[in-house]
Amino acid sequence: MIDARATPAPLSGAPKQPPGLLTVLREWGQIGCIGFGGPPAHIALLRELCVKRRRWISEEEFEHGIAATNLLPGPASTQLAIFCAWRLRGIPGALVGGVSFIVPGLVLIIALAALFLGAPPDWLRGAGAGAGAVVAAVAVQAGASLMPGSWKRAHGGQRQRWIAYIAAGAAGAALVGPWLVLLLLGCGALEFAWRRGSRGQRTLDLHAGPLVLLALAATTAGGVGALCWTAFKVGALSYGGGFVIIPLMQADAVEHYHWMTDGEFLNAVALGQATPGPVVQTVAVVGYAAHGLGGAILAAIVAFAPSFWFIALGARRFDHLRIHPGARAFLDGAGPAAIGAIIGSAIPLALALSETWQFVVLAGGGVLLLVLRRGVVTTLFAAGVAGIAVALAGAPLPT
After folding, report:
1. Which of 87, 192, 262, 320 has a CB 3.0–4.6 Å from the CB of 352, allowing a cystine?
2. CA–CA separation, 263 vs 225, rounded Å?
3. What pLDDT does residue 253 have?
């Protein structure tokens, strides 16, 4: 049983007196306010705070935290923020640090959701349509940036399976919709079974059945249960980085439950990229579209709760997790499939565009991201400005 009052022993070179909870609240909240740019920016800000400036955590343990959280499903940079706070103040620190990291961006994105999903003026609709138009290019860029590292970790005959997992994930994002999560888990279980033989196959049989039953129950129930299942997939069953939430949510939000239109979903993804904090908070926009403010808050709680549980239950075992062959085998299957799903999500995202000028903006965004190597926030801002110009010129906007 975990002792919530316990604080991990101080690291070598760390201060004897860990920072107070108010300090954690202030510092992690500041990162939550200025953390534009996704996981790379969050990691850099946490390293600057905890390792370089305050010397609360050693460089080695920080790197171990990055490696371990990358093995966990869900938003890795959020889990790293929770882990760093846990390392200083135990479970109370994890709760304070994690919540203060998440809440600033969450409040902003819910406010923007209310604005964009209401009756916005044409210029604001144009900004959303312009920014949403480049989301397909952002997905390709996000997936492509993950491929070299994943390919480097594959060796020998594993590379053939890596290619198959990439292809399966890409096809799944375009074809299987809300059941993509089962494909990702299946690829992970297949790689695990490949390395463990018949014992791995029994592990697959034991775990896949209850998950399928849970998915069937949630998707059949609809309503709040369906929203919780969608958010749970995002927070507890997503592998390969924050952008894998797009194919996990799009089919549910647009096609299956009709909570949002294609254009509104594109706006939601753009808002998740353009606001500070974790990209996973995009799920709050989906929740707002489904059930208003209560739905936004519920979706955020369900999506982020697993990250707190993973740290509370497993942070003391991170060293073991990093070298555990079963965990690495599963990720070696699920991870490439998730990367393929991110890239494959560009197909339904591009098909969601309805105006000719949006395809022109998409092409321009692709050049900025993939050729000129501009940042995601910069590209979204430029596309939003282009959308405003189009709207002011009287061009048709997506309905």
Report:
1. 262
2. 24
3. 92
pTM for this structure? 0.80
Q: Which residue bears the tokens 């808002």?
A: 271
User: Mean pLDDT over residues 66-77, rounded?
Assistant: 84
pLDDT at residue 332 is higher than 70: yes
Average pLDDT over every residue of 318-338? 80
- Evaluate if residue 338 carries a pLDDT over 70: yes
